[in-house]
Amino acid sequence: MTNAPLPILPFRDRLLAELKRAGILILSAPTGSGKSTQVPQFLRGEVDGRILVLEPRRLSARSLAARIAAETATPLGVEIGYQVRFDSACRPTTKVVFQTYGLFIQTLRDAPQLPGIDAVILDEFHERTLESDLSLAWLKALRRSRPGLKIVVMSATLDHDELASYLPEAARLDVPGRLFTVDVRHAPLVPREDPAQGATRALRDLAREGLDGSVLVFMPGLREIRRALAALGPDCRALGLDLMPLHGSMDLAEQQKALDPAGGRRVIIATNVAETGLTIPGVTMVIDSGLHRVAAYDPARGINTLYLSRISRANAEQRTGRAGRTAAGRCVRLWSRVDETGMAASLKPEIERLELSALYLQAASLPGEISWLTPPRAATWTQARQTLTALGASDELGHVTAAGRALTRYPTPPRLAAVLEAAVGLGPSYYQRACAMAAVFETSSELAPGAQADLNGLADDLIGGSGGDWPWETKETFRQLTRLSTRKTSSTGHTEPDDFARIWLDAFADRLAAREGEGLFYRLRDGRGANLAATKNPPMTLLALDVRERGGGGLAKQVTINLFFPLETEQVRRLYPNECSWTPSSGFDERKQRVVTDERLIFRGLTLARREVKANKEDRRAAAELWAEKYASGESTHPGFDDKVEQFVVRLRLAKILYPDLGYPAMNADDWRLVYGEAFSGRNSLKEIERVELLPQLEIYLGPALKAHLDRVLPTSRRLPSGKTGRFRYFDPPRAELAARLGDFVKMTGTLSLCEGRIPVTFDILAPNYRTVQKTNDLGSFWTNTYPTVKKELSRRYPKHPWP
Fold first, then answer.
1. DSSP string over 352-387
2. What is the CA radius of gyration of the chain?
């Protein structure tokens, strides 16, 4: 172990001089250099106003604030403090305040000019979250009116060229690190082994070599941390090691236990909150699962969420470096070297992989124009604007409305914010229910598989404090949203359940689904089908808020609705009477194997209900057209499409090519619709349809004149010298074969062609068993050159047969 000075300390004066000269500083310093704790202290005595330090995670903000408070011998929350979601230790006079980027955006909403703030430090900027990109974009714009505002952008890994182009006036400072060597080895998971089991195996290997410090184990999320705590517990007890978790959902006291330098040797199981931004004392060994939960758009719920994913090579290097901060260390990676070559070099910025309606709303709520370090993709940005326009949060030009500005006060995606804002006018009880539903919805990925899917029931359990062990995040989100109800939450009149249903329908109308049949199968507005998770008394109509597709790897795909808001058909009719109408329709009934004529209750393109009616003449015609479309489109092949029909169609298409001016049909889908439409007239059931013979219908469709011409130029048969008949078979590209037994071709010589010599004929010479023995274009050559050999072979096989 070493107590050498932090690498950042010798650069204090240069850092301050460059920042004073340029006003903006890009600082690159590796993990362990001390930038997160020392740079705020450098600025503490250099600026008059408050210093904000922005962090991507609550854990980093709280732990770094506590660390600096301890270093400066001041109580936490007095000179040094923090403000994060669900927690705060800060006074109006606090000099250095650590905030998450997300909370900083909330600050901008209320005070975009940042009065009283003289310096902003953007830490761990390489993570490129939506909030960090918006923060920098606004600070850059703000310096036009506040040139004295100091900005420091810092990280262990930065794209200097991109930032330098974006901030041309910025000074740049690179601080070399002090990183000890780390022995990296790979121990990939074996089949059926999960990360917790792999970590247990890796810990035992490290223990056999000797443990010279604490062990940091990286797991992707809370579920995996819980499994790892259970798996590693027996080994840690046997080795005399303390075992503790570390993640952003823990309170400050629990986090400090893991970060306390006075603690003994321990095994700390952490998410990627321990990847950067804070130092965990005594760690000389790392076990890396190679996984994390990365922010991405979740189309199943229509919100941005966290997905389990393989880390990038940059993440892997950051994690490895944790083992070499204070001494030489060891790192066990639970993946192979081959896997490593397929890992991405780094993560793309969130602005390139997330849905952006929340960012659009936040950015458009700020005064003036801003420019982006990485501009949003045009299609994604347009979709974000359209989402907000549908919610009434922006106008057609993309300007934020008063309703949109009201949504920014809620720390939720815009759709949920729209629900909460509308619930304010329904009264306290409905607002509380909306808060509970929003909390469950936002954190539903943490619910156990197969859990209750009815959002109403889940909200009842959360409000009543029952229903098992709710995730900490769910409970805290519910409390925070409920606290936002300090403004008036009383309705102007009597509130009906329909009013509460309307605010959810208005926000999630595209998630409306209607039940088909008596089971648990539902059809969504976009045409997808999904099965509802096992539910008592399934509603006829619902909002499918979480739709998941599972399967692959040889398994059939299953689409399941895991979370829903229950509705009834009549409820939708009452709420939107002008958009619901009964419309005549015909469709296939797969169970009855026939076309059923009915009336359908349609709402915005979705069939909510059906009622069967007696078919009339027009309905029967529509039924024939439906069957015609089914076969003409290629969805199915009619049983009557046999070899005779196929040859007739080939002849038609050849005639179309060879005689383009005579009006032969092309026999495309439109032709087939007409043929099938006439063939199926008056028929409905599948049995009736399958009994139809197609060849007579095709001949009628062609007409007698063209039929006679077709038979003359492309005949189906030819009389042979033996008196027997040979059959023609046609192919595309144009060619033909005339097939008959060998004896039937006797006395026939030379070549043959059709259509004025444009289609040569190949003679398909058959044995007595009607199998081909030879194909030739010239019978004269066959009799002279080939027949003697063929005759010998056939004589052996058919000795009683007379051969000429």
1. GTS--HHHHHHHHTSSS----SSPPPHHHHHHHHHH
2. 38
Residue 800 has pLDDT above 60, yes or no: yes
Share of the chain above pLDDT 70, in %: 92
- Cis peptide leading into residue 191 (ω within 30°): no
**pLDDT given at position 552:** 45
CA atoms within 13 A on the CB side of 120: 30
Can you give 437-500 as a three-state secondary structure string? Answer: HHHHHHCHHHCCCCCCCEHHHHHHHHHHCCCCCCCHHHHHHHHHHHHHHHCCCCCCCCCCHHHH
3-state secondary structure of 324: helix
pLDDT at 575: 92
Handedness of CA 129, 130, 131, 136 (dihedral sign): positive
Beta-ladder partners of 729? 737
Q: Please name every residue paired with 565 in a beta bridge, in sequence order, or none if there are none.
A: 543
3-class state of residue 29 by DSSP: coil
Among 10-19, 34-43, 532-541, the least confident range? 532-541
Tokens of 705: 């004149």
pLDDT band at residue 288 under the 50/70/90 scheme: very high
CA angle at 477 for the pair 304 and 315, rounded to the nearest 5° = 45
Q: How many whole angstroms separate alpha carbon 276 and alpha carbon 155?
A: 9
- For 704-716, b/e burial (b = at least 16 CB within 10 A) is eebeebbeebbee
394 within 8 A of 285, measured Cβ to Cβ: no
Q: What is the C-alpha to C-alpha distance for residues 509 and 434, in angstroms, rounded to an integer?
A: 17
Q: Which residues pair with 55 in a beta bridge?
A: 100
Residue 7 to residue 34: CA distance in whole angstroms: 7
pLDDT tens, position by position, 174-223: 998 766 889 999 999 998 899 999 999 999 999 999 998 999 999 998 88
3-state secondary structure of 544: strand
User: Is the distance from CB of 411 to CB of 482 less than 8 angstroms?
Assistant: no
What angle do the packed helices 378-390 and 414-424 form, to 10 degrees? 10
User: For the chain, what is the mean pLDDT?
Assistant: 87
Amino acid at 531: N
Tell me the three state secondary structure of residue 559: strand
**Helix, strand, coil % over all residues of the chain, rounded to 5:** 40, 25, 35
- Answer whether residue 739 shows pLDDT above 80: yes
Measured between its terminal Cα atoms, the distance across the chain in Å is 105
Helix axes 357-364, 130-142, angle to 10 degrees: 20
DSSP string computed for 30-77: -TTSSHHHHHHHHHHTT-SSEEEEEESSHHHHHHHHHHHHHHTT--BT
Token look-up 């172990």 returns: 1
- Judge whether 129 and 101 are in contact, CB under 8 Å: yes
* Confidence (pLDDT) at 346: 85
| Residue range 74-83, pLDDT digits in tens | 999 999 999 9
DSSP annotation of 323: G
Q: How confident is the model at residue 581 (pLDDT cuts 50, 70, 90)?
A: very high
Measured in whole angstroms, the distance separating CA 738 from the mean position of its chain's CA atoms is: 58
Residue 448 has pLDDT above 60, yes or no: no
469 phi/psi in degrees, rounded to 5: -90, 100
220 - beta bridge partners?
none
Q: Which two tokens stand for residue 89?
A: 């230790």
Cα–Cα distance measured from residue 481 to residue 484, given in angstroms and rounded to the nearest whole number: 5
**DSSP letter string over 412-441?**
S-HHHHHHHHHHHTT-HHHHHHHHHHHHHH
Q: Which H or E run includes 713?
A: helix 704-713
Alpha helices in 77-187 (DSSP H): 101-110, 130-142, 160-166
